[in-house]
Write a structure and sequence with these properties.
Layout (H helix, E strand, L loop, with lengths): L2 H30 L4 H10 L3 H11 L5 H12 L1 H9 L8 H9 L3 H12 L6 H29 L10 H11 L7 H18 L4 H16 L8 H4 L6
Helix pairs in contact: 1-3, 1-8, 2-8, 3-4, 4-11, 5-7, 10-11
């Protein structure tokens, strides 16, 4: 087993452990909104985006038109387009199929760890990428199904207040980049845009509005000098 695979498994296992309560929450809330255990498993396996899955099942329970559900999930997932654009230059050596698979697994922690890895001068090898992705993906499916299967034992899942795990989780990801130049004005712009979007447009569009505001501010900030690549890029292991 290569070092990249071991690094991916170790890093992903930490994320899988921290995401498991959120997966259980999703499964319980989904069943509470009328989905079957099979529906939960299929949704986690194909959409594989916790926040979007919660948005979807809340709308399912309100009998909203299908096209509005699709647009709402797209609004929440818009940030993944930005993620894919950000890492595209680091996976140019992937085949078309490898890129398609990589983008499917490009969830928030995958992007955060990939960005951190490239900043350290490490390559996004396919072996590291998939080890990190799969050790999160399969536990997510398992705990989603367990949450759906045993959800009735929890009663109303909101009473347990484990839904606060989502904002705490995202805050932890964001704070991981706090030492980067432009962090504070970018976060401030995203926060202001998201709050304004929530009050003037509504949920879930405020997620994309906040993201766009942050991107615009980041694009307008002056570029910072980058370290010499010869000092940061690791030599490939033979």
């Amino acid at each position: 087993m290569t070092k990249d695979v071991l690094d991916g498994l170790k890093g992903g296992a930490i994320i899988a452990l921290s995401a498991s309560p959120f997966a259980v929450l999703f499964g319980a809330v989904a069943v509470d909104n009328g989905l079957s255990v099979f529906d939960v498993a299929l949704m986690s396996a194909t959409i594989y985006a916790g926040a979007s899955q919660l948005v979807g099942i809340e709308l399912f329970g309100q009998h909203v038109a299908p096209w509005l559900i699709v647009l709402s999930i797209l609004a929440v997932n818009f940030r993944h387009i930005l993620y894919s654009a950000a890492i595209a230059r680091h996976i140019r050596d992937y085949t078309f199929v490898q890129k398609a698979v990589a983008f499917f697994f490009l969830i928030d922690p995958q992007f955060a760890e990939a960005a951190r890895r490239t900043e350290q001068g490490k390559r996004l090898t396919m072996s590291w990428y998939m080890a990190f992705a799969l050790v999160i993906y399969f536990p997510w499916l398992l705990f989603s199904v367990l949450g759906a299967w045993f959800g009735s034992m929890l009663g109303d899942p909101r009473v347990w207040a484990i839904d606060v795990l989502l904002p705490i989780y995202f805050m932890g990801l964001v704070l991981g980049f706090r030492r980067k130049s432009g962090f504070y004005p970018t976060v401030a712009a995203s926060m202001a845009g998201s709050v304004a979007g929530y009050y003037f447009v509504g949920s879930p569009w405020h997620v994309s509005i906040g993201a766009i505001c942050g991107v615009l501010v980041a694009a307008l900030l002056p570029l910072q000098p980058q370290p010499d690549s010869t000092e940061t890029v690791e030599e490939p292991v033979s």
